[in-house]
Amino acid sequence: MLEVKNLMFHPLENGLEKSIIEDVSFMVADGEMLVITGPNGGGKSTLAKLLMGIEKPDGGKIFLDGVDITDFRIDQRANEGIGFAFQQPPRFKGMTVKRLLSLAAGEEMPEKKCCDYLSSVGLCAREYLNREVDNTLSGGEMKRLEIATVLAKPHKLCIFDEPEAGIDLWSFSMLVKQFEQLHADKKESLILISHQERIIQMADRIMVIRDGKIQALGRKEEVYPGLVNEDMGCACMNPAHRL
C-alpha cells in the first residue's frame, strides 16, 4: 500500500519560490488502480516524479507498505518495488532491446522470456531483440517497449505517466488491453496519469489535480460524473482525447 501525507514541492524559479505541489495526501491500496487527471500544468507529472524519487519534496512523507521511503534514492525505491514509465521514454543508442529488458529485470533474461514480454505488448518479438533503443523506434514502439520493461520485474506499485502521449490508435488499444490485464491480476497497485476517457473509466478511484492541489478524489462512480457535467478542467472532455 502507498500512503502519501501532506506532500509539498516548492522549487525556485528565477530566484522565486513556486508552489507546484501543495499539501497532497492520498492512499493507493494493494491491487488498486488510481487514475490521476486534471488540466495541463497542474502538477500531475511532478507528483509522479516525487513518488519515484526523481524530485525531492520540501515537506511531507511517502510510505510504501509502512516503510518511510521519503528520503530513498530512485534505485532504493525501485528495490522496494516501485516501477516507473516515463511520459517520454528515454532512448539509448548502442543498447539493444534484449539488453534493456535484462537490465529492467535485474538479471540476464533468456531470449524466450524477452520474446514473451515483447509479444505481450504487441511487438513482433524476434524483429526487435537486437534492435537498438534509439531514434529508429517510433513513439508507439517506445511506449510499448517501456511497458515491457516495467512488466519484466514484479512490482508493488507501477506508475505510468501519460502512457497515451504521442502514440497511434492501434498502439493505444494494445496498452489499454495490457493495463486491463494488469488490473485484473490484482498483483500490483497502479497509478496512471492520463487525460484519456478510456483509461479514466478503467479506474477504481480518480484523483483530479489542479494548481498542485487535489480538487477531487473518490471512486470512479463519484468523481467521473463531475468530470463530464461540471468540467473540472480535465482535458479528457475534449473529444480528441476519446480514442
Concise structural overview:
With 243 residues, the protein is an alpha/beta fold. The chain is built from 9 helices and 14 strands. The two termini are 31 Å apart.
Structural class: alpha/beta
- Count the beta strands: 14
Helix and strand run: EEEEEHEEHEEHHHEHEHEHEEH
Give the CA-CA distance, first to last residue: 31 Å
Taking pLDDT < 50 over at least 5 consecutive residues as the criterion, the unreliable ranges are 237-243
Spatial sequence of strands, sheet with the most strands: 8-11-12-5-13-14
- Helical fraction equals 25-40%
The profile of the biggest β sheet is: 6 strands, mixed
Question: Strand percentage, roughly?
Answer: 25-35%
Query: What does the average pLDDT come to?
Result: 88
Structural domain tally: 1
Query: So, the CATH homologous superfamily?
Result: P-loop containing nucleotide triphosphate hydrolases
Q: What count of helical segments does DSSP give?
A: 9
CATH topology: Rossmann fold
Cα shape: globular
What CATH first level would be assigned?
Alpha Beta
Radius of gyration, taken over Cα atoms and rounded to an integer in Å: 18 Å
CATH architecture tag: 3-Layer(aba) Sandwich
